[in-house]
């Protein structure tokens, strides 16, 4: 698969789907949903110029630290963290880029995710300010951002509430200025994923998510360390005798997200 990708016999999208599958990610498990990169940073221009490197995110940095100010705060948090019990290793991020709640957050406008979200929120929609309502305010992505325009529209007319400060009603997702419709957004976003810039830099993101910068000294240097429970093999659940502790850890792993298997 790597050779096919290098020879440009398969698209970036196909390559990412294959890597996700090999790393144990699947559409059948919300806690192990496929992970795709956040690739753009221009959400304000009237036109999207894919020949301009400035419209793309720096794929060599985790999404949480592409902004310098955040990078400083994340580094300080890691350096100052000490677990008095010595169980929890230092980490840069307590929340994960891929978890069940995040997938439901993006897909809230389409079933069965609407119902799953309501179940997660004890029988009602979460408050409007926490809903997915705007593309520019987002984190790492799911594959649907590159092929499924329907999830950006509230075709079922769900009452998703209104924002507290602006009183704006949450309905269809707010698109960047350069997208004239959900279909146009998906078309341009997919084009961006297959662009020359992303083709030349995608391996940098793959290193962070699936490769050598996922753990160990390289992850520390790249500001890419997550809470210890999210890593494969970090906890041996079968060895736990305390049922309560086991249940708590299982809940944590299911809800906080999991790092893909290292490839």
TrEMBL record:
GO terms for molecular function: protein kinase binding. It holds the Pfam family Beach. The keyword Transferase does not apply. It comes from the Eukaryota. GO terms for biological process: intracellular protein localization. Transmembrane segments: none annotated. SUPFAM superfamilies: BEACH domain. Residues 1-263 form the BEACH domain. InterPro entries: BEACH_dom (IPR000409), BEACH_dom_sf (IPR036372), BEACH_Domain (IPR050865). GO terms for cellular component: cytosol; membrane. The keyword Glycoprotein does not apply. PROSITE patterns: BEACH. This is Neurobeachin-like 1.
